[in-house]
Amino acid sequence: MTLKHALTILLYATHYLSIAVWVGVMLFNLIVNFPAIRDRARSADEFAGAMGAQARRAGPWLYALIVLTFGSGWLLQVLVPQQGGAALPDLVVAIKVASIGAMLIFHLYGTMRLWPQIYFALDEERGPLLLRYQLAMVASSTFGILAILVTYWSRVTLLS
User: Which of 16, 53, 90, 133 sits at 20 to 30 Å (Cα–Cα) from 32?
Assistant: First the structure.
């Protein structure tokens, strides 16, 4: 096994795992974590504090996953065709880049724009803001799933 071949395998693993974990964490938060925090909180302040603590723990990891997804994807586009492998068609690459870009935009909107508003909102303002945040995370997850499905579809098509 050559160094380039080993690097390619490592990049594929990094790329697939980073986007799968990124999407998985968002879905876990939407389906399990946020409702559990809401149910356990005895007050709006306790809810805001728990959500803020969760965001401080998860945020850096999610942004690391974003960097890994983009970086490994770009390196794969550079390395794989040079090794005689089948490059993804330009349309597939464009769809993936647009999907992951949209995923990032919705993620940034949720975490940088809505999250601070949720944290400092009055009780009556918090519910609608949290719903907007959750919708942004649903949109982000949906675009991530689209990128994953387009990749698998294109790889299966290229192999057949």
Answer: 16
pTM over 0.85: no
Contact 134, 87 (CB under 8 A): no
Distance between CA atoms of residues 91 and 94, nearest Å: 5
The amino acid sitting at 78 is V
Instruction: Name the H helices within the chain.
Output: 3-28, 34-40, 44-82, 90-108, 115-120, 123-159
Scanning the structure block, which residue is given the tokens 């993804």? 88
Averaged over 19-29, what is the pLDDT?
90
Mean pLDDT of 122-141: 88
Q: Cα dist. 36→40, 42, 104, 106 in Å?
A: 6, 12, 25, 23
CA separation for the pair 62, 55 (Å, rounded)? 10
